[in-house]
Sequence to fold (85 residues):
Amino acid sequence: MSKRQEIEIRLREAFQPTRLEVVDDTESHRGHAGFTEGVESHFNVAIRAPAFQDMNRLARHRAVHTALGPELIGQIHALALDVDV
Fold:
């Protein structure tokens, strides 16, 4: 399973989002820090879920990181988040 798929599965299970888009943006970082050939390392995530209703921006980001878990987060060089209700 790819990291992109794993991110998507974990976020769907944790938040039952109304919208979820996970984009592997690794290739656009070729030549930059954190890029390794053949390794998924840079992601853009847009997620909308009622679970974020009573959370501020920082709490939403922390919730996403918690859902992904320290092992998966440790394998990601860059994670851009767009999190809302």
In short: The longest strand covers residues 42-48.
